[in-house]
Amino acid sequence: MFHDVVIVGAGPVGLMLACELRLAGTPVVVLESGSEPGAQAPGVALNAGVVELLEMRGLMDACRAEGFEFPMAHFAHIWLDPTQLADRYPFNFAIPHSRLVHHLAERARSLGVDLRLGQRVVEVTQDEESVRTRIETPSGEQTVRSRYLVGCDGVDSRVRQAAGIGFPGDEQPFHGTVADLAVGPDSPLAELVGAREYPAGLVAVTPMGPGRVRLLTGEFGVEPPRRDGAPDLAEIQDSVRRIAGVAVTGGTLAWSARWFHVTRLAERYRAGRIFVAGDAAHTHFPLGGQALSTGLDDAVNLGWKLAADLGGRAPEGLLDTYHTERHPAGARACRTTRAQVALLHPLTELRDIVAELVRFPAVNEYLGMMVGGTDTRYLVEPAGGDAHPLAGRRLPGIAAAARSVPGLAEAWAAGHAVLLDLTGDDSLGRAVSGSAKRVTVLRSAPLPHVDAAAVLLRPDGRVAWAAPAGGDTDGLHAALTAVAGAPAQGS
After folding, report:
1. Using an 8 Å Cβ cutoff, are 229 and 170 in contact?
2. Assuming Cys at both sites, which of 58, 130, 315, 466 could form a disulfide with 390, CB separation 3.0 to 4.6 Å?
3. Phi, psi for residue 270 in degrees, rounded to 5
């Protein structure tokens, strides 16, 4: 059978991409080597950018009952104050990423995604017309043929390797463990709740529910004792003792894994009909949920573009903009996490200076948006003149806009492009008539955080075009074509 899109990997990025494609009406198959999607996803942090994105797609409500919001953020464990940011963004949220994956898998299945478990990729080949993926399944080998293949299969991506995409970077001497423990109320880990830095490394303890914590350790300047196999309780306890000088006794180990300090960035995000996203495209030190936010932004960027291409409405070169927009974002995530590691180890006077600097509102704003994943701006080429300051960004005050503009939350949840008309007349609605089936037009009074008379939002929530208050609408038709394709004939 010939498929439109096959995604390899049912982690958060692969499932988010699958959901995006289904929202656009594109059939999609997801191949996952494991028996359950994301069962061992180690992260717990959703930064502001991820919360904002999940709110847009109507996915946060399912997460709220299993986690908690916290109005804090950090740069290298130097605490920032997100309540002081000029624009209102959601606060960070804590939930095991395994539970986020569970909710994404439920949404994917409800949308009709063909999710196939126990499917291990053996070989990938492509030609000008299609991609062939040979897989091992419980019933034997099969070959799946598709127009496009997307590797969301992690750092050791078989898809990336088969596509011949280089993955340059480096690995620093470091060894980390992460584990879920069942502990009693008198456990010494209660004294270590939060993230703490020591000369030898770091220890972080996050409550995960009654009698359960997630314990993370990281030792700098050491070679990993081994790379395979999960650490046992004794090894984890020894790591806490070496780093923090705390003797941890008791507790029951529910799950554990190792992690390393590797920074790599794919040379390109596309090779013919093959794409890479998430950890298959970029990997770096895990801090504040930046890996998740960068990967999910990959997914929503690529999803609407693949759907437009498969629907025959993509302007020339649209698929190539996935690399030109997302590769710089991946490079920045690698660079900014490297900078944070430099402040984490060794502990120096420079760290004290940065801790003083974050008290300045401008520094708090800059770093808060960086670690929150809300400062990414794509380069949008205007039809004439300079691009509007909003172009390439997400709409400011997304939550408030969704509450204020009737129909906006529903349009975002459905993955639609939106023309937000704040002018008070019907002129823009008439301009969109040829693309009406692919663009939702909504009218509203001016919004307090949006300095524009009209805004065209891509399906991923990014501003494709905006008209200044009291200004003209030059460039709208070109922007509509880029987002929704050429207007229908006869319209």
Report:
1. no
2. 466
3. -140, 140
